[in-house]
């Protein structure tokens, strides 16, 4: 710009403008000075608007007076990045704010650490976050503000309550976990000894509550956790607390230990080498272990687990717990003469012609064919970690996912997998909850209106107590309403989860003739599919290849 020059006073870190009034064309305007600065190497300076205005006034006055004297004015200055530190009221975090500099410099990591230390920030500092703030402020235009949390405290973690731990695995868990063989290999045929403990054996132990984790604030103040509480031991059948150790549970009878829902039971156990016409049927109030076969038309009924170290042929096995058959089970085709009914889970090595009812899960290690299954949980055909068994020519009512290696048969024999019953039960319960919830909401609203009307009127002293009782009942009704709304939310989520888990996974192949349904929604395989999963997507059955 003619008649105006810019320079830096390095000592004072200021931007100086010098004007020769007689060389300036016309009157000198602040906009012209601003434009000159923005087109120069000094555009990042902090501009002093008052200085520019003063320079223009002096220059224009000198020009009017035909003065030859140059006018000089400070119109800008260098400013280093501004840094501020804010520590949260609870001292659980500290944040740094950096305003990008005006032709100045940004503080180094060491400088910011020194400032944090001066403010009392001692712990939980993130070097990465500080350096990121420095980089942002260095690269940005002047005067841009950046804020980030650069230090965090560690909240104290309360200790966990005491927990009861079983010292012995449940029979079904043990049978699903093959035993180690030599050379670090797993022997799939060795399913482990069936466990039976003697009386006075310690079967479970209560572990002490943990002390928790000590936390700290960013200023280094320790935060003490609450120590976990001691939970009362709930004793199951045939157990007691040891007289020598209040944290040890002992068996009071010789039997089979079973740990469920944090309660240890020891089932009085009946053992036999086999069940046949010579031994007669078994109906026992505890657990039953059969170290042999169960032959045709025989019955084994027990309130506890039933473990059969042998083969079951056209027999009836009913258990109030789990059923474990270490070999196979077989019934006659199209006849319900081999029944395995369990309140718990069922494990069988392989099966054909079976009628299986289980409230929990079903695991068939190798193959299931020509059978009828009603399972409340997961059906797994094969090893639990990698199900590669086969299932075909059966009718399955399933309450969760069915996993197998091969689903269906190359012959196209019919296999039906039905998820209807579980969702119908959930729908029925959900509708009942909705009906009760609707009625309770209406009642609660009406009661609230009537109570407000009564409160707005003069109430005789003799009736004040009665009105207070009505308020108490109303509050109880509101608590019940809140509880029921929570139940409704949980059941709605249960329906979502059920449909999410209703699927068939074939880790090897799925043949033609497989039908999958949930009420009116159905899907049928019309050809052979390789690794695949059939699941509900947006309410419709959909086939998806498995990529691994």
UniProtKB/TrEMBL annotation:
Give the signal peptide range.
none
Q: Where is the Flagellar Assembly Protein A N-terminal region domain?
A: 83-261
Q: What is this protein called?
A: Flagellar Assembly Protein A N-terminal region domain-containing protein
Source organism: Brumicola pallidula DSM 14239 = ACAM 615
What the entry lists under InterPro entries is as follows: FapA (IPR005646), FapA_b_solenoid (IPR046865), FapA_N (IPR046866)
Q: Which domain of life is it from?
A: Bacteria
Q: Which Pfam families match?
A: FapA (PF03961), FapA_N (PF20250)
What parts of the sequence cross the membrane?
Answer: none
């Amino acid at each position: 710009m003619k008649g105006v020059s810019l320079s830096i006073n390095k000592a004072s870190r200021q931007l100086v403008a010098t004007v020769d009034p007689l060389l300036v064309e016309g009157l000198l305007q602040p906009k012209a000075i601003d434009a000159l600065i923005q087109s120069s190497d000094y555009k990042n300076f902090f501009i002093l608007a008052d200085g520019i205005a003063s320079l223009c006034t002096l220059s224009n006055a000198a020009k009017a007076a035909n003065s030859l004297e140059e006018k000089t004015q400070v119109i800008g200055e260098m400013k280093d990045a501004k840094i501020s530190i804010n520590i949260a009221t609870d001292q659980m975090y500290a944040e740094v704010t950096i305003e990008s500099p005006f032709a100045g410099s940004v503080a180094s990591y060491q400088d910011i650490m020194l400032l944090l230390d001066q403010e009392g920030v001692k712990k939980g500092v993130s070097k990465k976050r500080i350096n990121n703030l420095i980089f942002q402020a260095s690269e940005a235009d002047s005067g841009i503000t950046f804020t980030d949390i650069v230090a965090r405290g560690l909240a104290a973690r309360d200790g966990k309550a005491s927990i009861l731990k079983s010292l012995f695995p449940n029979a079904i868990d043990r049978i699903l976990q093959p035993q180690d063989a030599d050379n670090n290999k797993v022997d799939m045929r060795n399913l482990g000894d069936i466990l039976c403990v003697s009386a006075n054996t310690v079967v479970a132990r209560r572990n002490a509550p943990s002390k928790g984790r000590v936390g700290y604030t960013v200023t280094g103040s320790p935060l003490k956790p609450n120590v976990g509480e001691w939970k009362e031991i709930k004793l199951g059948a045939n157990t007691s607390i040891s007289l020598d150790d209040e944290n040890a549970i002992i068996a009071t009878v010789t039997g089979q230990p079973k740990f469920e829902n944090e309660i240890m039971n020891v089932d009085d156990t009946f053992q036999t080498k086999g069940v046949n016409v010579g031994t007669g049927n078994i109906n026992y109030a505890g657990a039953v272990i059969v170290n042999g076969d169960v032959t045709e038309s025989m019955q084994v009924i027990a309130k506890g687990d039933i473990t059969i170290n042998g083969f079951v042929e056209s027999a009836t096995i009913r258990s109030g717990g789990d059923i474990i058959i270490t070999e196979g089970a077989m019934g006659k085709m199209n006849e319900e003469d081999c029944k395995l009914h369990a309140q718990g889970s069922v494990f069988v090595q392989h099966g054909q012609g079976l009628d299986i009812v289980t409230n929990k899960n079903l695991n068939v290690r190798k193959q299931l064919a020509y059978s009828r299954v009603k399972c409340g949980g997961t059906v797994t055909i094969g090893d639990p970690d990698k199900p590669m068994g086969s299932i075909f020519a059966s009718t399955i009512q399933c309450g969760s996912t069915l996993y197998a290696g091969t689903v269906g048969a190359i012959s196209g024999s019919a296999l039906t997998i039905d998820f209807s019953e579980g969702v119908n039960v959930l729908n029925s319960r959900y509708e009942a909850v909705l009906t009760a919830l609707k009625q309770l909401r209406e009642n609660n609203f009406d009661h609230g209106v009537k109570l407000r009307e009564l409160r707005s009127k003069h109430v005789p002293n003799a009736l004040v107590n009665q009105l207070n009782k009505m308020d108490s009942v109303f509050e109880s009704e509101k608590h019940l309403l809140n509880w029921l709304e929570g139940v409704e939310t949980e059941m709605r989520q249960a329906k979502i989860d059920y449909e999410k888990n209703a699927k068939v996974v074939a880790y090897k192949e799925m043949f033609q003739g497989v039908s999958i349904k949930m009420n009116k929604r159905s899907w049928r395989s019309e050809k052979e599919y390789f690794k695949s999963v059939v699941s509900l997507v947006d309410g419709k059955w959909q086939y998806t290849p498995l990529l691994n």
